[in-house]
């Protein structure tokens, strides 16, 4: 794949409008590095100062970016530019553009294996999953796998052996063997499966059903998967984020304007947090006190105080914010 390194992208100044909605002051956070918010319809990233809670700048990416992801070694934050067929790498500490890799076809969603030997992308528009080998510097396509309709989200197990991918419009979940780049199995899901989260040493998978109001549970401990139940959460169950304490996971209910916390032992909802504007992707502050949420339809980053269960601050960002990441985060 061709790349361009060490060439800074043009920086767009933040809008002159006030960056923070008038709300009660947010509690202090130990974060000193920037928060990155991906604005899908503006093709840029908002860089947020977590001390002043202001948007410092907007940095252009490629065309139609949809997801943002931090590498397991935390050396880079990557933006996947689906219509631009490229990946933009940022320094998570300084927000400087590190490099751009071109020739990555329709990267809607992305994820590295934990050992960083494999890199997987889901081509949401072109209906395939690409498996790349990574040598620490460059990506080499190992295989392109034709899948079901509209590949959506990816989860790679902790052993770096299997990539699980949801098919949003054919209502399926598939398992891909990374070593052989072959599909191990596929199983039917509920309506519009989106994000995936592994629990119990990846023996159980949780799948958000954006076309419904619940999370579907799959037992994948055997040679074939088994659908074992559902967890009622809220309308448009979509994205997951580990709570950071090893005991819970958050799921955003995009159409229900809420976030649910699921207990990892009982697989039941233990708390609910109202978040306006179509909550989508999330991150958690290093001290575990704040939840950062992209309000997809409101052009805002919402900050939730997990103790008071209230949105205590909002920061204006770009159109259709679709991801948020920071290096100062709780355990993922």
How would you describe this structure to a colleague?
This protein has about 325 residues and is mainly beta. It has 2 domains: about 55-230, Methylamine Dehydrogenase, Chain H (7 Propeller), CATH 2.130.10.10; about 240-330, Thrombin, subunit H (Beta Barrel), CATH 2.40.10. It contains no helices and 30 strands. The two termini are about 30 Å apart. Residues about 5-25 have low confidence and may be disordered.
What descriptors fit this protein?
332 residues; mainly beta; Methylamine Dehydrogenase, Chain H; Thrombin, subunit H; 5-stranded antiparallel β-sheet; 0% helix; globular
Task: Summarize the entry for a quick read.
The protein has 332 residues and is mostly beta strands.
* Amino- and carboxy-terminal Cα gap: 29 Å
Structural category is: mainly beta
Order of helices and strands: EEEEEEEEEEEEEEEEEEEEEEEEEEEEEE
**What is the overall number of helices?**
0
Q: Which architecture of the largest domain does the CATH hierarchy give at level 2? A: 7 Propeller
**Would you tell me which CATH topology of the largest domain applies?**
Methylamine Dehydrogenase, Chain H
Oligomer: single chain
């Amino acid at each position: 794949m061709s790349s361009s390194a060490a060439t800074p992208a043009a920086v767009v100044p933040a809008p002159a409008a006030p960056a923070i909605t008038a709300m009660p002051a947010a509690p202090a956070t130990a974060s000193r590095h920037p928060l990155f918010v991906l604005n899908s319809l503006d093709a840029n990233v908002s860089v947020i100062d977590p001390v002043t809670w202001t948007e410092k700048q907007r940095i252009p990416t490629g065309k139609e970016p949809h997801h943002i992801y931090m590498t397991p070694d935390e050396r880079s934050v990557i933006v996947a530019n689906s219509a631009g067929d490229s990946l933009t790498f940022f320094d998570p500490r300084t927000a400087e553009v590190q490099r751009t890799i071109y020739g990555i076809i329709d990267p809607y969603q992305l994820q590295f294996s934990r050992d960083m030997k494999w890199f997987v992308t889901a081509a949401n528009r072109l209906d395939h999953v690409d498996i790349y080998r990574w040598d620490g510097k460059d990506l080499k396509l190992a295989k392109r796998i034709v899948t079901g309709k509209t590949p959506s989200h990816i989860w790679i197990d902790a052993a770096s052996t299997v990539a699980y991918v949801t098919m949003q419009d054919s209502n399926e979940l598939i398992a891909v063997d990374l070593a052989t780049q072959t599909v191990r199995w596929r199983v039917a899901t509920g309506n519009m499966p989106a994000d995936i989260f592994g629990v119990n040493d990846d023996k159980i998978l949780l799948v958000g059903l954006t076309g419904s109001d619940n999370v579907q549970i799959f037992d994948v401990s055997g040679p074939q998967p088994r659908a074992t139940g559902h967890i009622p959460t809220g309308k448009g169950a979509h994205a997951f984020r580990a709570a950071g304490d090893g005991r819970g996971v958050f799921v955003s209910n995009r159409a229900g304007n809420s976030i649910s916390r699921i207990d990892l032992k009982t697989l039941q909802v233990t708390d609910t947090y109202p978040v306006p504007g179509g909550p989508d992707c999330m991150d958690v502050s290093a001290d575990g006190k704040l939840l950062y949420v992209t309000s997809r339809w409101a052009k805002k980053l919402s900050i939730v105080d997990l103790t008071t269960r209230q949105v205590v601050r909002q920061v204006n960002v770009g159109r259709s914010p679709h991801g948020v990441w920071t290096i100062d985060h709780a355990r993922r």
